[in-house]
Design a protein that fits this description.
This protein is mostly helical and 150 residues long. The chain is built from seven helices and no strands.
Length: 150
Amino acid sequence: MASLVEILTNAETRPRVVRACNELIAAEVAAKGGLAGIAVKGAYRLVQAIKPAMVSEVVDKLLPEFAAALEPFFAASAAAAGDQPRSRAFAELLVAQRGPVSEALLSVTDSRAAKASGPLQKTYAKLRGSAQEHVDAAVPGLARTISPFV
């Protein structure tokens, strides 16, 4: 069986995965409410205005690392799938293990932030707590987004 990294990053699939993840990000941002939602929406609009392709470029660049972070969940779902389609088993496992899944994804950005300059590290550290909540909330959407590709 191919690894999740191989599946999601092959030349035919990768552009579709990136596009689907961009749509998920836009939907997650649009769904945010309250003061935090205003801040998230404002930051997203600012990024889109300054460099419209930035989110897509970041998703494309980090896709192999995110897929590698999800590999243990993919392997576990394949082992437990039984008669279920692999995509359904994977989606269900991601949702069931939302907390560990979000931690695995954030470990990618944690690693990147650790290599950043001092001011960026400080900013990331301030936002990290709320990032956990946002990623936890986005895991079901992520499961629906990437499971069709596996």
